[in-house]
Write a structure and sequence with these properties.
- By secondary structure, the chain is an alpha/beta fold.
- The chain has a 6-stranded parallel β-sheet, with helices on both faces.
């Protein structure tokens, strides 16, 4: 086996002394062995894949070592690895066969790239020895992945497999996280070499903790102290850094209201007294200072520009990537550093300045905005109408969820309604398509999330259109006993009626029956009072489950037209 000491053969010398000697025979290993060992050395415990040449023997060796989940489409493998990473905080690993297998990974890897998630993708490839000859499935796979990864490399020497895989993990998790791709030609995978010729890194790399400049830390605290209407805005950099405790300490110390990006939710429980989800728009527009930690100034936060933000708002931005500081608008103070380390520095610096600071008029103002917003939506949350309003569905899901449940949301209308109405309480437990708006992630994300934390309740809330894109992964869930609960908001088509009439209609398909065919639990729901009992029966079945809820095709969530797209 790879990694074992070389075998020893004893023999008897026939000289006068009849001495006993020993011959050391060096073990031979091939590229398949080295791929599996390299992943093991990086601490990998789970892989998602679809088998095929030349990766068949890689798959066999992974099955011997790791939890290996074979999916029905390579796209789903990349998406499951994405969700696994978002929930576990570790890199997700996926691999596929050469040619179309690898190209099918691209959507999932590209989604991870825009979402800044460390996914390590491996792909089989045509033989190095046949490069340029028109070999079977010969394509520039590395060239395809370069624009959507932090690092893409082709292995051309079997002895370098551990080195290149180690580098891939290091690049994926260092600085701003992101996906990487390693191309594995068939002749490299099956080439055999003496194990002694291979240089093994030996242990997984560690990610350094970069501290902020102390002078800038002092200036940041001074800006926040002088502000009359400060807020804190955080992204997934807090999660990747493991800075949840430090963030809550800083919020509690300073009594500054906080907001997060959609993917960064749950880093502080959203029933915290300084969480005012319904006052988000007003808080951003009226804030005179904002501490931004671990998130990009992209469209999710209106690029940091008016009208989402006041023209004269003072911005203190903390990010591990210096390229993100001041991107899209100038900032008053930029601190390059690890979120956990910098927040600890801010706590130490602010401990005297903010000690025993009471509630401000600003907090009371935001509380009022929040209460009025909640009251405005309450009628729809309580609606008994049929077809069911999506907000009523969201309320039923919210009330059914465990406090530490993982919620995966995919779609258009239901995505917007869910983010307005379902609070989160645990870090890494909010998973959606992110900045790419990639529909079809629902079932693969739910699969990856449940594998990452099998002891947690995983609820997938999906539109019917998005469910259909990767609904075959219900079969994967059944085969691997991955009992996630999938709740479909079935409004009969893409988006709301009247928003996109061309090609919109899908019909109210019986996705629950489809689930039953694969051996999952399925149930159709048409009345709001039946949603909760149906979910209870689904979970009690112990199987992967689909609860197919017929919702109002005319219900519209508030969003901004695509031509002027900014998240609200």
């Amino acid at each position: 086996m790879c990694g074992a000491l070389p075998p020893v053969v004893d023999f008897v010398l026939t000289d006068l002394n009849r001495s006993v000697g020993r011959i050391w025979i060096m073990a031979k290993v091939n590229g398949n062995d080295l791929v599996a060992r390299a992943l093991q050395d990086e601490g990998v415990d789970t892989v998602f894949y679809l088998t095929g040449g030349p990766m068949v023997d890689v798959a066999s060796r992974c099955i011997e070592r790791f939890h290996s989940v074979d999916v029905r489409h390579e796209q789903a493998a990349a998406m499951a690895a994405h969700a696994y990473s978002r929930v576990s905080g570790k890199p997700g690993v996926c691999f596929a066969a050469s040619g179309p297998g690898v190209t099918n990974l691209i959507t999932g890897v590209g989604n991870a790239f825009l979402d800044a998630v460390p996914v390590v993708a491996l792909g089989g490839a045509s033989a190095v020895s046949q490069t340029g000859m028109g070999a079977f499935q010969e394509m520039d796979q590395v060239g395809m992945f370069k624009p959507i990864t932090k690092y893409a490399e082709r292995v051309i020497d079997v002895r370098r497999i551990p080195e290149i895989i180690n580098k891939a993990f290091r690049v994926a998790t260092s600085g701003q996280p992101g996906p990487v791709y390693v191309d594995l030609p068939g002749d490299v995978l099956y080439n055999r070499v003496d194990e002694a010729e291979v240089m093994f890194p030996g242990r997984a790399h560690s990610v350094p903790r970069v501290a902020g400049d102390p002078a800038l830390i002092r200036q940041a605290v001074a800006i926040l102290k002088q502000a009359q209407r400060p807020i804190i805005l955080t992204g997934t950099g807090v999660f990747w850094s493991g800075a949840m405790e430090e963030l809550q300490q800083f919020v509690d110390l300073t009594q500054i209201p906080f907001y997060t990006t959609p993917q960064g939710r749950g880093v502080i429980p959203e029933d915290h007294p300084l969480s005012f989800l319904g006052a988000r728009n007003q808080a951003w527009k009226e804030a005179d200072a904002v501490l931004i930690v671990g998130t990009r100034l992209n469209f999710i936060v209106g690029f940091g520009l008016p009208p989402r933000w006041a023209p004269d708002v003072k911005i203190v931005q903390v990010d591990i990537s210096d390229e993100e500081i001041g991107r899209n608008r100038p900032v008053d103070l930029g601190i390059v550093g690890d979120a956990k380390t910098v927040l600890r520095q801010l706590i130490d610096e602010a401990s005297d300045s903010f000690h025993k600071r009471g509630e401000s008029a600003w907090v009371e103002t935001l509380r009022g905005y929040d209460q009025r917003s909640q009251e405005k939506s309450q009628a729809l949350l309580d609606s008994d109408a049929t077809p069911i309003h999506p907000l009523r569905l969201c309320k039923e899901v919210r009330d059914f969820m465990d406090r530490d449940a993982i919620i995966v949301v995919d779609g258009h209308e239901i995505l917007n309604f869910a983010r307005q109405s379902i609070p989160l309480f645990s870090p890494g437990h909010s998973v959606n398509a992110g900045p790419n708006g990639c529909m079809g992630v629902a079932v693969p994300f739910g699969l990856g999330a449940k594998v990452a934390k099998p002891d947690k309740q995983v609820i997938v809330l999906s539109g019917d259109g998005s469910f259909g894109m990767n609904g075959m992964e219900i079969d994967t869930m059944v085969r691997h006993n991955i009992p996630a609960l999938i709740v479909i908001s079935n409004n009969g088509g893409w988006a709301g009626k009247g928003t996109m009439d061309a090609g919109r209609d899908l019909g109210f398909s019986r996705y629950d029956k489809m689930a039953e065919v694969f051996g999952a639990y399925g149930e159709l729901v048409e009345r709001p009072e039946d949603i909760g009992p149906a979910m209870k029966r689904a979970v009690a079945s112990g199987k992967p489950a689909v609860v197919n809820v017929i919702t109002d095709p005319h219900a519209r969530s508030s969003t901004v037209s695509f031509a002027n797209y900014r998240a609200i």
